Amino acid sequence: MNRRFKDLMVNIKTSETIPDILINGLATDSKKVKSGYIFFAVKGKKFDGNNYIKSAFENGALAVLTEKKNSLKNNKRLIVQVEDIRETISIVACKFYKDPSERLNIIGITGTNGKTSVCSVLYSILSSSGIKCAQLGTLGLIKENSIEENAYTTPESIELNKYFYYLNKKKYTHVIMEVSSHAIDQKRVSNINFNIALFTNLTPEHLDYHKTLNNYFNAKLSLFKTLSKKSKAVINISDQYGKKIKKKLDILTRDFSLTGNNGAYFKKIENSYKGIKGIIRSDNSEYKIESKLIGDFNAENILAAVECAHILGVGKKFIERGIKNCPPIPGRMESFELSNGAKAILDYAHTPDAYKKSLSTLSKILNNEGKMYIVFGAGGERDKLKRAEMGQIAEEYCNHSYITPDNPRHEKLKSINDQIILGFKRKENYSIFNDRIEGLHNALKKAKRNDLVAILGKGREEYQEINGIKEAHSDLEIIRMYQ
Question: What Å distances lie between residue 32 and 26, 138, 482, CA to CA?
Answer without folding.
Answer: 9, 23, 44
